[in-house]
Write a structure and sequence with these properties.
By secondary structure, the chain is of the alpha/beta class. The protein has helices at 2-18, 36-40, 77-86, 99-110, 149-159, 178-182, 184-188, 197-206, 222-232, 235-238, 247-261, and strands at residues 67-71, 91-96, 117-121, 134-140, 160-173, 209-219, 241-242, 245-246, 263-272. 38% of the residues lie in helices and 23% in strands. The relative contact order is 0.16. Bound molecules: S-adenosylmethionine.
Length: 275
């Protein structure tokens, strides 16, 4: 399990260093839930270092003075937006397993005036966060990458205050082909490790969350799915063309169709009952 997480982490190190978006599903649609105001207020380069699949905060009701925890915060786009929402009296904590992501997040935070964001290195299955200390858990395209999702769901319930809430944007799927599940690259790209909405909701409820439901969904085009694999192939392969079209690219778009139909981004809400 640790080995699998290390491989995923290595892919994200490569992606953040090379400024390459490995998350296939997000494609051009990843900013659909962000307002123009949100995006223009960010320091230069922050949006480009996002690997999300939605905007969890847009579906939350995070208020001033609250404490927000972002699971798998990556380079920190959602941390900055959360810091604005909670204000100087509130606090934002970002946890990520990847040192390179955290370095980039620190750089992005340092380019702002926010003093209420704290970064912590750690696993979402064993959070370096005190029990019953968080008002809102948010996360953007991360839990699908977990090799121990049950532990991650239990950790959400552990760190939330009584009546604390959760808003998670993540990729889910139905009937993923076996070759997608087996592929390391497609797992790091948020497809191979996905579970169904039903399993996700059940996992949250088993952990003790209540009012669990999906409040929004976003679907993708086969072309967006295929683009990731195209990016990863050596250029001599993608350059093989017929009638002005890349043969490999067209083939991949055909192969991506069954994935695109069965995979989407969902926003999950949940609340912790009083303990
Ligand atoms: C798809 S990226 C999303 C990053 C960020 N949430 C965003 O929207 O840009 C996934 C992130 O989760 C982190 N991650 C994946 N699995 C993790 C785990 N089990 N524990 C902690 N971090 C994890 C990766 O290092 C990476 O930064």
């Amino acid at each position: 399990m640790k080995n699998k997480s290390n491989k995923i982490s290595a892919e994200y190190s490569k992606a953040i260093k090379e400024n390459k978006n490995i998350v296939s599903a997000t494609g051009g649609a990843k900013f659909a839930d962000y307002s123009t105001y949100d995006l223009v207020s960010l320091p230069e380069g922050v949006a480009e270092s996002s690997f999300g699949c939605g905007n969890p905060l847009a579906f939350s009701s995070v208020k001033k003075s609250e404490t927000v925890l972002d699971l798998g915060c990556g380079a920190g786009l959602d941390l900055l937006l959360a810091a604005e929402k909670v204000g100087p009296e509130g606090k934002v904590i970002g946890v990520d397993m990847n040192e390179d992501m955290l370095k980039k997040a620190k750089k992005n935070i340092d380019a702002t005036t926010y003093k209420n964001i704290e970064l912590r290195k750690g696993m979402i299955e064993n959070l370096p966060v005190e029990s019953s200390s968080i008002d809102w858990v948010i996360s953007n395209c991360v839990i699908n990458l977990s090799t121990e999702k049950e532990k991650a769901f239990n950790e959400i319930a552990r760190v939330l205050k009584p009546n604390g809430q959760m808003l998670v944007s993540d990729i889910v799927s139905e009937n993923m082909p076996w070759w997608v599940k087996r592929s390391g690259i497609l797992t790091a790209a948020c497809a191979g490790g996905t579970i169904s909405e039903k399993s996700y909701l059940q996992g949250l409820m088993n952990a003790g969350m209540i009012d669990c439901n999906v409040i929004s969904r976003q679907y993708y085009e086969p072309k967006q799915m295929a683009s990731i694999v195209v990016d990863l192939l050596p250029s001599f392969l993608t350059n093989i063309s017929c009638c002005g079209k890349s043969i490999i690219e067209n083939l991949l778009i055909k192969m991506a169709s069954p994935i695109a139909k069965n995979l989407w981004s969902a926003k999950f809400y949940g609340r912790l009952t009083f303990k």
